[in-house]
Amino acid sequence: MRWLLPYFFVALLAACGYGSVPPVREAGELVVLTRGGPTTYSLDETLGAVGFEHDLAALFAEELGVKARFIVAASDAEIYLRLKKREAHLAAAWLTPVDDPGLRSAKPYFQSANVVVTHEASLPLNDIAQLAGKSLHVVAESRQAAALLELKSKVPTLAVVGETERGELDLLEGVASQRLEAAVVDRSVFDIGGNYYPELQGSLKIGPSRPVAWLLAVHGDPDLPDKADAFLTRAAKDGTMARLRDRYFGHVERLNQTDIVTFVERIRKVLPQYRPLFQAAQASTGVDWRLLAALAYQESQWDPLATSPTGVRGMMMLTGDTADHLGVSNRLDPKLSIRAGAQYLSDLRDALPAEIREPDRLWLALAAYNLGMGHLQAARSIAKSVKANPNLWYEMKKVLPLLARPEYYERLKSGAARGGEAVMLVENIRIFSDILNRYESAHHPLEEMAGMTGMEGVVGMAGLKAKYGGSAGKPRQQPALRR
Predict the structure, then answer these.
(1) Separation of first and last alpha carbons in the chain
(2) Which domain does 129 fall in, by range?
(3) Quick check: 443 pLDDT over 50?
């Protein structure tokens, strides 16, 4: 039977005695099965749980008038089993419809495919027959594993290695480092991972493109399938789906391979000498040091002596007026520049209206870093006049280029601005930040201080809390100067 997964541990899970959930209205919550991964669910230290599937399911729960509770399963097979046992109301885990009488799919909302990923040093794969004798690594008990096991009838010498401890991005890292010969992952995961590992190539699809959809138990909450389909239909029509796609996938193909190779190389060779400065700036502003490093790379490629024809200078490319406002005596001093640039970005983010939520708040602040707050506020006014939402980056990145058109800027006090450049800056920073988050660890200055022993550690913690703990996230006076 097509798409029949090998349930190696079905009997074990069946013996665990999980209880079924009552209908959503009775339960007072929407219980969602998912998996960890770049398209589904992950934990962000600033934003908490994030992911395309997470956000979409959370919005559905909000429409139902309840909160979503997520259960992170170890594999697709576990999701299928637990869903049929009605331990959750639905599964949102980048799944395709399966041939199983106990499961049904909601309205599809994406199309994706399985792709074979190899290192660029190997010959490209263009035909299924070329897989003979190769070892292909997959996440165990996933739809990629099922597709390859089915393929073995055509390519008997193909070796399928199911990985239980590695996720899809880990498999891509293994291929990039040439520890693994090849891997099969979802095409959307490869598009994301290609920004982290530019050595990868993925030209051979395994099977046709397949729809991505939520799955529900056939004998689950009787009202839920129709409600899910209605929600997904509305989300496609009102722009909700497009905004989520833009948030998680809209920026991943902006850089070419050369850009990514250069950036990764500079992470290894140049960033280490400036890492402590970015981490110190995080401690004083609360802005993740990797985001600050991404901003600095976009501005100067981490060149502390960078100077533009318009007069902005230094690692964070500050104007003379902004540097004076922030007390920077030498814009070419990387320590002073990074500290001031971080403070400026933090001030801009705090100055935005309270109703703007993250991550849109950060992306709009980055646009203001490039344009100045006056131009950003002018663009927000234009957004209202063209019936766009000024609080959403997805809509503002369409509005910002209008600042360069006379029919708009001639009626603005702030005048013309290169809003299109600001959009490109923010989108590039999003990619650079994603890559840095993959390569570099988060910084936890208070936790590191807490690990100190004796009175020195106690005093150090108290001092850090007094200096930094109460300032991050509090509104500050809006900066008077624009960059």
Answers:
(1) 62
(2) 111-210
(3) yes
Residue 450, both tokens: 């807490």
d(CA 129, CA 417): 55
CATH number for 373: 1.10.530.10
User: Would you say residue 474 lies in a domain?
Assistant: no
Pairing state between β 67-73 and 29-35: parallel
Q: What is the DSSP string of 439-470?
A: HS----HHHHHHT--HHHHHHHHHHHIIIIIT
In a domain, 475, yes or no: no
Instruction: Tell me which residue has tokens 């013996």.
Output: 15
**Is 299 considered catalytic here?**
yes
Cα torsion through 356, 362, 365, 369, rounded to 10: 180
Q: Where are the alpha helices (DSSP H) in 132-251?
A: 143-151, 168-176, 187-196, 224-237, 240-249
Question: What pLDDT, on the 0 to 100 scale, is given for residue 309?
Answer: 78
Residue 105, φ and ψ in degrees, nearest 5: -110, 150
Q: Report which secondary-structure segment, H or E, holds 183.
A: strand 182-186
Q: How big is the chain, counted in residues?
A: 483
Q: Both 381 and 318 in a single domain? A: yes
State the catalytic residue, choosing from 78, 87, 168, 299.
299
Distance CA 109, CA 94 (A): 10
Note whether 200 and 176 are within 8 A (CB): yes
Write the CB contacts of 37 (distance below 8 Å, at least 6 apart in sequence).
51, 94, 167, 168, 169, 189
Q: What is the pLDDT of residues 123-159, one digit of tens each?
A: 889 999 999 999 999 999 999 999 999 999 899 999 9
User: What is the model's pTM?
Assistant: 0.77
In the beta sheet, which residues pair with residue 30? 68
Question: What are residue 241's phi and psi, to 5 degrees?
Answer: -65, -40
Percent of residues, the chain, with pLDDT higher than 70: 88
User: What are the backbone dihedrals phi and psi of residue 185, each rounded to the nearest 5 degrees, phi first?
Assistant: -135, 170
Residue 475 pLDDT? 31
Query: According to the model, what pLDDT value does residue 449 have?
Result: 55
Please tell me the distance from the alpha carbon of residue 69 to that of residue 54, in angstroms, as a whole number. 10
Mean pLDDT of 222-238: 96
What Cα–Cα distance (Å) separates residue 394 from each residue in 42, 250, 327, 362?
A: 22, 9, 34, 13
Name the domain count of the chain: 3
| pLDDT level of residue 451 (50, 70, 90 thresholds) | low
Residue predicted with more confidence, 27 or 467: 27
Do 268 and 240 fall within a single domain? no
How does pLDDT run across 327-380, given as a tens digit for each residue? 999 999 999 999 999 999 999 999 999 999 999 999 999 999 999 999 999 999
Residue (of 101, 142, 84, 111) closest to 1 by Cα position: 101
264 and 127 inside one domain: no
